[in-house]
Design a protein that fits this description.
Length: 59
C-alpha cells in the first residue's frame, strides 16, 4: 500500500498541520483506538502467560 508523503495514512486525504500526519482529529483518534484495541501488533515470539507474571502462583 503506497501513499504520498503528504497524505493521511488512514484515509489518504491531505494532511492537516494540526493533526499531522493525519488529516483530522478523527483519523488520529481512530489510529489510537486501533493501538489500544490491539488492531496493530508488533511481531515477536508468543508470550508465556505464567512467565509474564512471575510464575505459577497466580490466584
Amino acid at each position: 500500500m503506497s501513499r504520498k508523503a503528504n497524505q493521511c495514512p488512514l484515509c489518504g486525504k491531505p494532511q492537516q498541520p494540526e493533526a499531522k500526519p493525519f488529516c483530522s482529529q478523527g483519523c488520529k483518534d481512530r489510529d489510537l483506538l486501533k493501538w489500544l484495541d490491539e488492531g496493530y501488533r508488533v511481531p515477536g515470539p508468543p508470550a508465556d502467560y505464567a512467565d509474564s507474571f512471575g510464575g505459577d502462583d497466580i490466584d
